[in-house]
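Schema walk-through. Below, the input block comes first and the output block second. Nothing else is stored per chain. Lengths vary across the set, and this one has 160 residues.
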Amino acid sequence: MSFSARDFRDCLGQFTTGVAVVTTRAQDGAKAGITINSFASVSLDPALVLFSVDHRAATHALFTGDAKRFCINILSQSQKQVSELFSAPGQDGWDKVAYEDDSLGMPRLKGSVAALTCERHALHEGGDHSIIVGHVQELVMGETGAPLLYYGGRYRTLGE
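--- output ---
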């Protein structure tokens, strides 16, 4: 390999991604969330999506274990602080965000451009991450057209 991990990360940073927070509930009812930009559609029929979570993340064991359902909240450009709350290790930002429970009991963030509630369909190992495939059970369209973006190691908005 003729490149460093930093070179690889910088190269991947040239791909603009959306920003999402995946939320769930533990069996004891405690809410958890993690900021991601590793979100992709997999299949239209059945409706499948995926995201990945670092093995070192505090929520890794929850998302790959007991949490069989989760909600992927695609953030709007006004939700940068929400992204930051759920990206800090050990941070519990629930008292600083507006949310409601969806029909399946998952916390759904208010103000997101869209949200997809999923049931875990498959789990795969992917190097230092786990890849979680979800079967979409419910979706909500929010205020479309102003997503929060990530490019070149920082947050961006459309039109920059």
